Amino acid sequence: MACLCDVALIAQLCTVLRGGSCAVTFGEWGSGLGITFAIDITSLVFAALGLALSLAVTLYTWREDVRPASAALFHFLIGACYGISFTKDLFNAYVLFELVTVSSYLLVGTDRRPRQIWAGLRYLIFSSFGMSVFLLGIAVVYAHVGSLDLDVVAAAVSASAGASWVRLASALLVGGVAVKAGVFLFSLWLPLAHSQAPPAVSALLSGLVVKMGVVELYRLSAAFPIGFALTVLGVATAVLGIAYAVWASDLKKMLAFHTLSQIGYLLIGFGTGSEAARYGALDYAVAHGLFKALLFLAAGDAAAAVGSSRIDRLVEGRDQLGGATRAAIGLATLAILGVPPFAGYAAKAVLESGIASVPLRVCVFLISAGTAVSFAKLWPVVAGSPRGRTARPRAAAYAFLGTAVILFLPISRAMEPVSVWSATLHLPAMAEAFAASLLGTAGYRWIRRHAPRLPERIFFLEEGILAVLVGIFLIYALLGGS
Amino acid sequence: MVGWQGVAAAIVLFGIGTLGLILRRDLVVKLLALGLVNSSVILALVSLRARPNLVPPLLDGPTPQALADPLPQGLVLSAIVINFAVLAVALVFVMRLVERYHTTDSTRLERRTHDEEES
User: Fold this and answer.
1) pTM for the full model?
2) Would you say residue A22 has pLDDT above 70?
3) What are phi and psi of A96, to 5 degrees?
4) How far apart are CA B8 and CA A77, in angstroms?
5) Which of A178, A260, A286, A457 has its CA 20 to 30 A from that of A468?
6) Shortest alpha-carbon distance between residue B24 and chain A (Å)
7) Per the CB < 8 Å rule, is A118 touching B23?
């Protein structure tokens, strides 16, 4: 019911706006003191993503007995996510972030298995520390600007460009949000939490909650000069995610590492700052949310059918998987590889067309190939003859997300200006996408034999907190260099 | 307290808390350190705009120039409540872990959950 209300509201907002933007200020304080909600294309895109994922997860868990507490937490989570996509007030964002994460800690531990609780506690310690850093950034901003509204802050920042407080505040704010956003050095908690959570929760965490950090980074990048730092972090995040995903032997863990690598794309897109790259990153945020949710839901289903989420076991027991489950894994894999005409290609091509610098384009190409390398492990699971069957509500959830993944290309093209996407329907762009996936798939065995095995220790708790501190200093240094 | 003294104290406390978070392996001590980090930020937030001789911003108070800024105090109230809630949730999680593993040592927990996963 609540979902249906949301559908109606967001559809109405879309029709009222038609590409323009407006703002609503709450309280009787006027803008600058009151909390402003910006309703523009970015916030609507993210709200629509939240809506799609909440519908899919509702379908997925239709006939199962979900605890009433979990259902309530789910609604808190979705509601707070809408809030973060709309808010333009820093402190309001802080409160909503805490609301999102408190509900997600509890959702991660929802089955009360000790390993899940440990994953949830680690997540809690990391993000509480990150939010403290964010609040420190808010304190610095408030001391110098006297307002927390991002428009007012942006004006003050551009008036005092290069001042040391701007550098400090942006390092602290970006560092704090990056802990939530799945960024290299900051979010080393993510692989464990996302792989241990129940499938429906993983889908939400990876598809939606991480995007909330990204949308806040995007809002910050409109006010603070952090484009260069975001691009560097994006490349580092993607490389790290792929390096570990190649080695991951557990399907859910591999998907969690790929969340990191795909967040890298978004950061590169938002950091580059050209219009096409921005649209591409928005597209990619939605596309990634859709196919990653599909992958996590199907992976959970497959793991339940086989009794393990290890990839070798899945390959052995692949005949027990339902046909719909395997179709879902296959489709989502094609989409994440960026094979035309699915969602991944539609978004990635726009993003790449917006990147001017050649080294960065090469990086993006290699990241695509790297994604194909680690997903080469999955093809044996998809091949073979299905004998099991998929529960009907789950098949409905796959059908819903799968349709969205297929229809993404025409829908997104209809909503964007033609100048942004005209280059993406040409042959070179498609050839490039195919080349990256073929290259990666072919290179899988060679890379598996020659790449060194990476240490798992950096994902431990203490090392992770240390990495957050290092990361904040790194951003501070990068801001000086740009 | 004059503003800069509060900020200096906050920085020191933040450092101590972070060190505790990294160096101490006991989860309860870690959570105490996390609480210290959170509180130090709150101290920084209230004292950044504090000046000597300010008075509380009451409706029938004296001239407007001498009033303390009420907004950070409002923000801090929310932050304190949030930190309290987060810490409470964390302690419940620790309780659950102790029931299962009989230890609060983070390194040992990390190893044991990791080993369980491998097997």
Assistant:
1) 0.90
2) no
3) -65, -35
4) 37
5) A286
6) 9
7) no
